[in-house]
């Protein structure tokens, strides 16, 4: 089995509460109170200095998870760095991480980007690689997005919604009975041009032919993702002979509290089956389901042997659901 050996996180020190964003948008003549309630925000951590970024956050989260697991960089056989705000496009962010933790020369390293679904996909793909290659005994998967860097100060959907944070997961091949169970996906590219950065592509941005400062977020019907989400989760549960009642914790995308409530209502979940951290962290993008996992483990709500279901959504759009026995 491929087990989640440990999970940890890093976030910057500064926390901004809703009052800051309400005041910011009131000066623009906008009332975002209802928006903040729908998204479930109270505070979020924001980088406010020149020395932190997505890469530094990922490195710190990685060092913490290695220490927690009682291993060091030399014990790592694979590194995947998931981000949609890379500090460099080449070399890969994973290469800097390799150096920072002192990983061995045989370690496989790569960056991965499936937008907000990225870390979930990276964990699943790393598991598949480990299952196929017994030489990979431990894999370090990092999700880190410096979201505030490219959030548009004129749009609440990014500026008042996003937070900065990183999560790191250590996967380990074991002889035990806990670990990865299954994963399932749904992709519909209908909204591929609604959330874009750079807004007209990298070639235009580099040539100075477009504004590349902020994410372009055009209006679209986000509700269309919910029916396939229900089917996705139902399929994953059914083919593994499980019901929603068998799942101890649902670690879902923290993009919107409204979406989480819809999933909870559809599957008639109890409150204690939902791990919600979006009120404290804001929306952290690729790492958000694993920040929820960290909260569940640290609070004692998730114990070894519990079934955990991850669900997330990536821009464009792609849905991913994954099952583990923690």
Automatic annotation (TrEMBL):
<dbReference type="InterPro" id="IPR013747">
    <property type="entry name" value="ACP_syn_III_C"/>
</dbReference>
<dbReference type="Pfam" id="PF08545">
    <property type="entry name" value="ACP_syn_III"/>
</dbReference>
<dbReference type="GO" id="GO:0006633">
    <property type="term" value="P:fatty acid biosynthetic process"/>
</dbReference>
<dbReference type="InterPro" id="IPR013751">
    <property type="entry name" value="ACP_syn_III_N"/>
</dbReference>
<protein>
    <submittedName>
        <fullName>3-oxoacyl-[acyl-carrier-protein] synthase-3</fullName>
    </submittedName>
</protein>
<dbReference type="InterPro" id="IPR016039">
    <property type="entry name" value="Thiolase-like"/>
</dbReference>
<keyword id="KW-0012">Acyltransferase</keyword>
<feature type="domain" description="Beta-ketoacyl-[acyl-carrier-protein] synthase III N-terminal">
    <location>
        <begin position="110"/>
        <end position="188"/>
    </location>
</feature>
<feature type="domain" description="Beta-ketoacyl-[acyl-carrier-protein] synthase III C-terminal">
    <location>
        <begin position="237"/>
        <end position="325"/>
    </location>
</feature>
<keyword id="KW-0808">Transferase</keyword>
<dbReference type="GO" id="GO:0004315">
    <property type="term" value="F:3-oxoacyl-[acyl-carrier-protein] synthase activity"/>
</dbReference>
<dbReference type="Pfam" id="PF08541">
    <property type="entry name" value="ACP_syn_III_C"/>
</dbReference>
<dbReference type="GO" id="GO:0044550">
    <property type="term" value="P:secondary metabolite biosynthetic process"/>
</dbReference>
